[in-house]
Design brief:
This is SDR family oxidoreductase. The chain is an alpha/beta fold. The chain is built from 7 helices and 7 strands. The radius of gyration is 17 Å and the shape is globular. The model has no long low-confidence stretch (mean pLDDT 93).
Length: 247
């Protein structure tokens, strides 16, 4: 498949889990892919090797999405491969806790907001002057933005709801440049942080129409679709990739 041939993608938080699934699929469909990561040098290197084995260019940049200087430096480094066609905002933090839990670490909650919301907003603003007209901006949200299946999700869900609101507004802002802006909201996806054989997986699957976990590749396929010409008239849209969990 080469629907994204000669395109260049920049993915935040791309070394593992859903991010790695996105990076692999974009590269499989022909895009050159630069991604940021925070901690795993070895996994990042292995992913770059995989990208390049597919005949496209790959680059990993160590950067904290919640740090303004890190993001600006990463974007400057990314554009060594040329202008950006596709931006995927995947990096995020998940910190839960009920509103009446006095043990909650407020500093960690603020960091979550900095990464999940302010970091995304700064990434978009920084990359727009370096993005080709007709580009694609795709953010990874959460079905928690519109439903709360269990207690303690308020702070995290609020960050993802803010990201969905940004998506709708940015679609209006950037329509004149033919840049589409969309958000994907994953459901239960099999990752290290939320394994399909985890202690609560059987209970959580009761809400999923398809009765199984999704895979990172499922999110990668959705991202690749929204990044392609097949989705050129789709913008300001929320796409749930959740096996019917939100049905």
């Amino acid at each position: 498949m080469s629907k994204l041939k000669n395109k260049t993608a920049f993915v935040t938080g791309g070394s593992r889990g859903i991010g790695a699934g996105i990076v692999k699929e974009l590269a499989t469909q022909g895009a050159n892919v630069i991604f940021t990561y925070l901690s795993s040098d070895q996994k990042a290197k292995e992913l770059v090797d995989l990208i390049e084995s597919l005949g496209v260019k790959g680059k990993a940049i160590k950067a904290d999405t919640g740090n303004k200087q890190d993001i600006e430096s990463a974007i400057r480094s990314a554009t060594e491969l040329g202008k950006i066609d596709i931006l995927v905002n995947n990096a995020g933090l998940f910190i839960n806790g009920a509103v009446d839990d006095e043990s909650i670490n407020i500093e960690e909650m603020e960091k979550q907001w900095n990464v999940n919301v302010l970091g995304v907003a700064h990434t978009v603003r920084s990359i727009l002057p370096l993005m080709n007209d007709g580009g694609r901006i795709i953010s990874i949200g959460s079905t928690g933005a519109s439903r709360s299946p269990y207690p303690g999700l308020g702070d995290y869900s609020a960050t993802k709801a803010a990201l969905a609101a940004y998506t709708r507004s940015w679609a209006r802002d950037l329509g004149g440049r033919n840049i589409t802006v969309n958000i994907i909201q994953p459901g239960l996806i099999n990752t290290d942080m939320n394994p399909s054989d985890g202690p609560f997986s059987e209970h959580m699957l009761q809400a999923v129409a398809l009765g199984r976990y999704g895979q990172p590749k499922d999110i990668g396929l959705a991202v690749a679709f929204l990044a392609s010409d097949d989705a050129q008239y789709i913008t300001g849209t929320t796409l749930n990739v959740d096996g019917g969990q939100s049905a």
